[in-house]
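Slide 14.
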Amino acid sequence: MSEFDLIKRYFTRPAPGATLGVGDDAALLRIADGMELAVSTDILVSGTHFLPDTDPFLLGHKTLAVNLSDLAAMGADPRWATLALSLPKADEDWLQQFSAGFFALADEHGVELVGGDTTRGPLNLCVAIMGEVPAGKALRRSGARAGDDIWVSGRLGMAALGLAHLQGRVVLPEDTRSACLAALHRPQPRVALGMALRDIAHAAIDISDGLLADLGHILECSQLGAEIQFELIPKAGGEGIDEVLFRQCVLAGGDDYELCFTASAERRGEIEAVAGKLQLPLARIGSICAKQGCMVRAGDGSEIKITESGYDHFK
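Slide 15: predicted structure.
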């Protein structure tokens, strides 16, 4: 099977929302009046972002999901994507399952694949995703204000615990294991939440590298600090898990792809209404303060010392 046969068979579909989609040297796109174009790119590398034997359907899902999560953090409505693949070989069964997982999530969010590239090499997956957001309404990292509440969606640390289980660093009970592996392999990008927060939140980010690392980006861009109450963070049950490992997974484990956002206390009712409408748990876990730095407190008020704040590819 040639490169172009591969593209035609597994990755070419109609793209009615584009002026020109797959099949030329570049796609042609037209955004609606009064909208800004939000663009993000993520690359997933075998052995770094996923295990080599990961189910290809789930890998197709996750490849797109991590990019959708970036648009969710901006409050953008996803529209188009490009996909670049480096493949060790043209394995038709693998390609069928991967593309099925990718397009299942794409269809769920109305995303059209409008271009990309393929080459032979180590397994690497790269998506560039594009979406629309009303001009001036995008959520940014720099908008937090002193006194803001800090909120998170979903439950944190589950994907990191799932990975720790696969790596043999912890043995999870069956019910917890199932939920954690689902969080690791099939994250749910919070696109609807991001769009609902456009006129409510002051700042937002998706949690990909760990809560403390990603919240730290908001604090750095906003030149502020934060105080977090560990007991308020929604998380998987930690029964029978080493306390240090559990806290590390929740605070710095990464791969959650939930949203962390800040908003004034006056908006609590609106945020709770959003949670009810979307049937998505949203939890208030701390507050933004003027003094820079981030402190995490245990239930007794003592400070929790964390040696690592999140994942860094070059450390």
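Speaker note: The beta strands are 35-45, 77-87, 112-120, 124-134, 149-153, 203-207, 225-229, 258-263, 282-289, 293-297.
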